[in-house]
Amino acid sequence: MTAIPAAFLDIMASKALAHLATTMKDGSPQVTPIWFDYSNGLVRVNSAEGRVKSNNMPEGAKVALSIVDVANDYRYVQIRGTVTKVTEIGADAHIDALAKKYLGLDAYPYRNAAETRMTFEITPDKVQTMG
Dmax of the chain from CA atoms? Predict the structure, then answer.
């Protein structure tokens, strides 16, 4: 695991969106802006089962994230990593925590009872920063 340098942890804790790059079955790239959090050296993202990014992120999948400082477009963190855990356990609480971070709300307002939420833990393999 590669750590995020201390000078860039503020970006990881901010309301900056991450652009998550995954690979489609045909090898083409797919990019989605997403909410995320960073804890204990892991990046965590949340999605619903069956979505494109969820389908592209089984355990072991390689992904990349680009996170730009909301106050300085020329300061960023770029992460290449591996999906090391996919779980439904705690995923509803995780999306609520992300709603608190990004919207200031205690509960995710777009919840769909028909969806199964999933949390994906990404272990950074390579980190690049600028700024």
Answer: 43
Sequence-ordered alpha helix ranges (H) in the chain: 9-13, 52-55, 91-103
Q: Which residues contact 73 (CB under 8 A, 6 or more apart)?
A: none
Tally of CA atoms within 13 A in the half-sphere of 86 that contains its CB: 17
Asked if residue 1 belongs to a domain, the reply is no
Q: With respect to residue 28, please indicate whether it lies within any of the assigned structural domains.
A: yes
Domains of the chain: total: 1
- Is residue 4 a contact partner of residue 124, using CB atoms and an 8 Å limit? yes
Q: What is the pLDDT of residues 42-65, one digit of tens each?
A: 999 999 999 999 999 999 999 999
CA 61 to CA 58: how far, in whole Å?
Answer: 6
**What CATH code is carried by the domain that includes residue 73?**
2.30.110.10
The answer to the question of residue 12 being in a domain is yes
